[in-house]
Design brief:
With about 250 residues, the protein is of the alpha/beta class. The chain has 2 domains: about 60 residues, no CATH class; about 170 residues, 3-Layer(aba) Sandwich (Rossmann fold). Helix content is about 25%, strand content about 25%. The chain is built from 8 helices and 12 strands. The structure holds S-adenosylmethionine.
């Protein structure tokens, strides 16, 4: 469910619709189009014109990301519901200090699994993702999710200067980790995200975020990452393959 609010008076230009190509099959059901059009000017094209690389495809079963080998990324909310069964005891919830109506800015929101988990636990979440096809698929996922979430499809570096200080309690940062030979393979959608998603300057983002969040900034890192990201965390929570570093503000 997409909830459109003002998020501390963020300017409307951040919510302006951007162009998006979607390739459709002849039997495509276009029920998803309305929701996607709230953030994108959708240009529907025939599936024959789809490029060889990952592209958004609408078919009978909905919207997905597909490549020339017909491998498909479909975002199922089952993953989120499974996570929600872990409630507030799971590491993500503890790291963010989850409570009802906690305002969270998920600044690098990707497919939105973390964002939707936090929303399902009662937080008021705004997602930001700069890759249009990732953002569109996350938006499609939000439409089929019963808890309200909102998303900005833009670069977080453009968004942060407009964020009112202390409006968000928590800023959550989950940068792409990059390949690591010894780390267990991530899920297929995360593997695809690591090829089509953007990398970012996490030190800069952390530096700006700690000045804005009223409570804390949480950074998700790989379990084995040892070096500081410009600042020492106040505390951390270690899960199986990842670690959440918490920077109190
Ligand atoms: C590791 S993923 C996040 C995964 C997410 N937590 C989830 O549950 O699906 C990081 C995401 O940040 C996005 N990203 C990187 N730099 C960005 C920027 N400057 N502005 C907005 N999004 C950015 C990438 O495209 C990628 O989708």
């Amino acid at each position: 469910m997409l909830k459109v609010t003002h998020h501390g008076n963020l300017p409307s230009e951040l919510f302006q619709r951007k162009p998006l190509n979607v390739f459709i099959t002849e039997d495509a059901e276009l029920v998803w189009l309305n929701g996607i059009e709230s953030r994108f000017k959708v240009n529907l094209q025939s599936i024959e014109k789809a490029p060889a690389e990952w592209a958004l495809v609408g078919d009978r079963s909905g919207l997905a990301l597909r490549d020339a080998d017909k491998r498909k990324v479909e975002l199922l909310n089952e993953t989120v519901y499974r996570r929600l069964r872990g409630g507030r005891k799971q590491a993500l919830a503890k790291a963010c200090g989850v409570r009802p109506a906690l305002r969270v800015l998920d600044a690098l929101s990707g497919w939105g699994t973390d964002a939707l988990t936090l929303a399902g636990l009662g937080c008021d979440v705004l997602m930001v993702e700069n890759q249009p096809s990732v953002c569109a698929l996350a938006l499609y996922r939000i439409q089929n999710f019963p808890h309200p979430v909102d998303i900005i499809c833009d670069d977080i570096e453009k968004v942060l200067p407009h964020v009112t200080k202390n409006f968000f309690d928590v800023i959550f940062l989950d940068p792409l980790f990059g390949p690591h030979p010894k780390t267990a393979k991530s899920s297929f959608p995360m593997q695809v995200l690591s090829t089509i998603g953007s990398s970012c300057d996490i030190e800069q983002l952390l530096f700006h975020s700690v000045k804005l969040a009223s409570s804390r900034v949480v950074v998700k890192r790989r379990h084995s990452d040892k070096s500081d990201i410009g600042m020492k965390p106040d505390w951390s929570i270690t899960a199986k393959t990842i670690r959440f570093e918490i920077f109190e503000t």
